[in-house]
Write a structure and sequence with these properties.
Length: about 240
């Protein structure tokens, strides 16, 4: 996607947490390894999208590359992209130390990645909220275009319910819950997330996915602010 228009969104400019900062990236990696069961997450997603050994997979917003590295053991090829050069460097180091030859990390994003092949599946976690809603739609449209017919799109992100009467109370409860369970740093990052990043509402996210042509096969809402969607690109002409 050419970026020469003055109105084009610059996805390389960081909003909210600065993932171009090396210390931030290293701390993120350690924190995620401690707080998440990444192996289990990957196993669940692989099962859901039914990966096969011939699949070519794209991960968008890979961060430090854990999912891409896991998937590469089960698929023919994985391409993983991120707008943060620091994230990509760390992911590349991991790939090298694990002798991975079928995973490729590139410094690009939803709006700038130029694909040379069709993908069997695209996976993106905790990244789409970095784009404002109009640009989310462009990002989803671009993802749809590079999927093969019948290809799967798995999205997991922070999405807010539209039916809340008291949003101040709702956000306070989320932040104090996180402070108790996962500590001050994540609580602080959540405040920045709500203030500066672009998590949207459930009906908007579903509308965006449908508007670009996806069939939503599964939509799960959990923990009060998380959502995951399994979508399929309709077979040509269906
Ligand atoms: C919260 S981290 C999530 C990383 C990883 N997916 C995970 O689950 O741990 C968000 C990531 O999205 C990346 N990101 C932000 N905007 C992006 C964009 N427009 N395209 C691709 N990646 C983006 C950030 O650089 C960061 O690595």
């Amino acid at each position: 996607m050419k970026q020469n228009s003055k109105w084009h969104y610059d996805e390389f400019e960081q909003v909210g947490v600065d993932y171009t900062d090396l210390q931030e990236v290293q701390a993120y990696d350690l924190r995620m390894q401690k707080l998440r069961n990444i192996k289990q997450e990957c196993e669940y997603i692989r099962g859901l999208i039914k990966t096969t050994s011939s699949d070519c997979i794209l991960e968008i917003g890979t961060g430090t590359g854990e999912l891409a590295l896991d998937f590469s053991a089960y698929c023919r090829k994985v391409i993983a992209i991120d707008v943060s050069p620091r994230m990509i460097e760390l992911a590349q180091k991991k790939a090298k130390s694990q002798n991975k030859s079928n995973v490729e990390f590139q410094n690009a994003g939803f709006l700038t990645y130029e694909s040379t092949e069709g993908f069997d599946a695209i996976v993106t976690q905790l990244s789409l909220h970095h784009l404002p809603d109009y640009w989310k739609m462009i990002a989803l449209r671009r993802s749809y275009e590079i999927l093969k017919d019948g290809g799967k799109f798995y999205l997991r992100d922070v999405v807010f319910p539209a039916q809340i009467k008291d949003y101040d109370g709702y956000f306070r409860k989320i932040i104090s819950g996180l402070r108790k369970v996962v500590g001050e740093k994540i609580a602080e990052e959540t405040e920045v997330h709500i203030k500066e990043e672009f998590s949207t509402l459930d009906w908007i996210m579903e509308g965006l996915l449908k508007s670009v042509g996806f069939n939503i096969e599964q939509a799960n809402y959990y923990d009060g602010f998380m959502a995951s969607y399994l979508c399929i690109k309709k077979e040509h002409g269906v």
